[in-house]
Structure formats: C-alpha cells, structure tokens
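Notes, Module 5: Reading structure tokens.

Key idea: the token line is not a picture. It is a compressed description, and you learn to read it the same way you learned to read a sequence, by spotting repeated patterns. We will look at two proteins. The first is printed below with its tokens.
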Amino acid sequence: MTQPQTSRTAGAAATETATDRLFVLDLSGGRVFSINPDGSGGKTLVTGCHNPDGIAVDAGAGYIYWTNMGVPSRNDGSIERADLDGGNRRIIVPEGGTFTPKQLTLDRTNGKLYWSDREGMRVMRTNLDGSAIETLIDSSQGDARPGRDAAKWCVGIAVDGERGHFYWTQKGSDNGGVGRICRAGLDMPRGETPATRRDITLLFDRLPEPIDLEIDHQHRLLYWTDRGDAPFGNTVNRTPIDTTPKQEVLLGHLGEGIGIALDVRRDRMFVTEMAGTLYSAQLDGSKPHVLTAGQGNLTGIAYAKSV
C-alpha cells in the first residue's frame, strides 16, 4: 500500500493535452471547479450549490451534472446541470425528487443518470433531462426516511453497461466495519420490486466505510475509496469484477478519501479527500503526489479527456 507524497509534483507529461480537465466539487465552498490534470489552471465554474457531492461530465454533449445533498434530515436533495464553462445552469431533478443524493454516474449509451440516495436508502436513475425518475434499490426494509441506520445508506454508484450491472456501496456507521459493496442488474427482474429484488450479489462485507466507486472497463476492475480507519480505511482499493472478488489496497493514509476518477488511457487515477487535497497516482497506486491542497472539503470528481 502506497502513501501519497505531501509535496506537489510540478509539470505534466509531454503527451498531456490542453483539453484534458478535471471537474471537482467543494462541499464547504458550495462550488464546482475545474483544474488541469497537472494541478494548474484551477477555475471556479459554479457557486451557491447546496452541499454538492457527486459529479459526472458528458464532454461530448457539453454538460456537467452534479448532486446537491441538501440537509440530510430534510427531503431537499436535487440534481443540477450546467454547460462545461458553468453557464446555462438549471435544475433537472428538483428539491425533494431525491432525499440525499450522493455519488452520480452517467450511462451515455442509454441516456441515463444513476445515483445513490443516502438517507433515502435507495439507488435511483433518471433520463438525462430529469424525466422518468426510477428507484432501482430500496434498502430501507420498511424504515421511514430519512433513514437513521447507516448500514442501509447507499453512497457510491458505478454502471457496467457491458455486463448489464450497476454497483453501489452501503457505508455503514463511521468506522463501523459494516460497509458493503453490492451488484444488481440494470433491468428490474420481472415481478420484483426495488425492495424485494433477488438478483443482488454481495461482493464485500465488513468494510470500514466504503464511499465512491469507479470502473476500469478496459481491465475489468472496480475501484473504490474508503474513509474509515486504517489499515483498510482512508484508502483506495480495487477488485476484479468478472472473477472472484479480491480486495487490493492501493493507496493509504488519505484524509478521509471520497471521490475517485480514472484516466485508464494514461494509467492514472485522481482522488479527493475531505481534508481538501487532490491527489494523482498510477492505477496501481504507485507514484502518488499532490496536485493541489487547501481547496475546502472535496467530494466528487470527474475526468474529461476532451473538453
């Protein structure tokens, strides 16, 4: 397990293009900002977000999407969209359309947005314009919303369109050691409901506090962050997804790691932490370094290779 360096590495690879860009959420500042993958050129795009947490980018269509958690005890979560430069901002899922939306991911092939709803204890999706909102997983087991049992909180989300699956995390209480990573089919089994579906596979149990997910589709690997206690918390991890799950801890000693984004083409990942630091490392966790620090409380991150 590798520990990130605390000093910034200057300069980018010679193959870096001017169009590569990271899009990052600052929870404490209520903003969306973008930055070059070498840590330069930071620019605030959107302000006044209501506790932003998850972000997805559709560079081809020219849009940024992000979730606003709102106040966890209230049913006031929402999802917004803006142009890549922050212009033409609009709400696509209004307040109350979801309870506490967390990580967000984009299924470009089918034109869907997927997200996990923490206190809502569910996994949801919608069309890219916010229409046809669906609940895919209901982990509440009859508990009223907002859910008080953190073991039922859904947080991370990733979609594997090639195999017809989605993955999500249930974080559990702080450092509770009851976190889970699960998988289910994109299509609801006939005759079943979000609360009763039987196609759910449990990949990992008893994790410290799993948060965000990301898939390396080329190498068929699932990555996740965990913000619980060491040695398995405050880490970046991965597992194969087509064979027997096996946790590999790649990066440790994070300050409550949250967001993760992959650039498989250049063998690198980007990780955010609540302590306000943005890291880069190779996909195996080697050569970690700080891109920028002191940026507030960082949550979601997305990578766009052509903006």
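Here is the second protein, with the sequence above and the tokens below, as before.
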Amino acid sequence: MKAMTSFELQGHRGARGLRPENTLPAFEVAFDLGVSSIETDVHLTNDGVPVLIHDARIHSGLCRLRLGGTAPDPAHQPAVRSLSLAELRDYRADRNPDPGRFPRQVATPTPLAQLFAERADIDPYGVPTLAELFAFAQAYAGQLGAQAGKTDRQRQKANRLWFDLELKRMPFHADRIGNDFQGDAPALLEAQAVRVVRDAGFVRRTRVRSFDHRSVRAVHQLEPGLVTAVLIAETAPVNPSELVRQAEARIYCPDYRFLDLIQIRQLHAEGIPVIPWTVNESADWLQLLDWGVDGITTDYPGELAAVLKERGIDF
C-alpha cells in the first residue's frame, strides 16, 4: 500500500508562518515555495458550503468585520455553521492570532490572489470556499499564474500537488460545529466535501483526513477514489496499523511528539506511509528525516524545502 514516490513537503494551512492561515495568499506563498501538498481545514456554512477555516467559531484574533459588513461582530464568536456563505463574506481573515509563534506572518497582498479575487469578486483575505481553492490552484497553473509572474516550474509543480482536507469534527461540541454524523453513514460535511472534489475533477489529487476516524471511513465508502488518512493527537496507539485499517484509511498522520522509530518501522512494514504534523523546528525535521518519515506538515515549507535540498531529497 505504501506508494509515495517522493517526500511529501506539506504546507500547513497554506504557509501559516508567512501569511494568515487558510487564505488565498497563504496558499499562493506555499505554491511559490514548491510544496508537494496543501493541508487545510473544512467546515460547513449554514447553507451547506464547505469553507476553509480552522476554528468552529469566528473570532477577533483571526477575523475582522469588513467595512459595511452586517454579520455578527467577531467578538461575539459566532459559529461558522450558524452563518450563511453570504454572511461569512463579511469577514476578513487577515489577522495573526499568535504573533509570538509567527513573528514573520504578514497580511500583505500577493499577486495572484489579487487577480483571482478581482475576477471572482471576493476578498483575497476572505474565508475561501473549497471550490475556490481548487479554482485558485487551476488559475495558478494556468495563464493567470503566468500573468502573476509565476515561473513555468512553479506552475507545473502546482498542477501536480495534492490537497489534504481536514474535515473538522468534534463530537462533544456538536452544537458548535453542526455535527450531524450518525454512525458510519456519510453525513452532510462528508457528502458536501466529496461533491465539491468531484465537481472540480480533483478526486485523484485530494486526500481527506480527520481526528474523527468514523468520518474518514465514511468518506472512503462514499468515494473510494479518495485517499484517506487518520489524524492522531497526543497519543501513541498500541497498534497504529490496525487503527489505520479500521478507518479504511491509507496514511497515518500523528502528532510528531508522540512518534518514534518503532512506530514508523511497524507502519512501514505494513505499507503505511507516515506524515507527522505540525513540525517547525529544524532539529525535529532532521530527526524525523533520519527515522524515514514519508512527509512532514509544517508552517514553514520554504525552510524545510532548503533542508530537503541539502539532503538531496526529492519533493
């Protein structure tokens, strides 16, 4: 089952260390840096549109109300699932909620995001839809990308990269997140995400992951052509390979702090790739590379790319 032919350089929420997370400029910077894949978070609006935002609630640390906007004040922390797409368009996600961790993050314009947003009549720092991410990637790889100054190499790489979608589920807080998941059956979040992927023609370039492994299995049953992955946080399972199998997944994505060489060898022995998250320190990158992981999710893909080049690792 392990069929990854090169190392996976995965930009976390685009390139969170350099631009506000899950925004078109963050994705553009990640594309510019030559990532192998983009990781992003998926919630649903009240009218069933998959949108790219990490938190279940709008908050003032990340978002501000656009001039003339009539949506609820971010200070009130409205749930994303309580808002229509039209209401969500009233927010700009251009703030840095953690400048201590991300001192180099800036919200300056990027050329393609500006061009694309003008044509789509959206805010380049608005909360994008999943469909807009796919359209943006196609624009980057096409003539609009050339117009925005992207090189042939950058555009070719963007035309091959993967999209890693984290479906956001938190069963205990169903009231906040709109958790309509029932057993193993695909629910609205899974069904709508799969529909958008199919409509965009990106089934063969998309993976779906979640901390709710029932969601992962439901997606696989709904669309077997999608590669799926299990997310693991703050734990080292007794049998990680069995956990992957039970979810009908193909990739293991652990919190790197709870990973060791023993687990990696066990997973690789059963043909399961390992892509830990979210790793931002060079010493940790080097340790994971020595252990033979198949990829790394990072907020600083440009710096990790330099390390991989030094080691002669293709990505």
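Summary for the second protein:
- DSSP finds 13 helices and ten strands in the chain.
- The mean pLDDT is 94.
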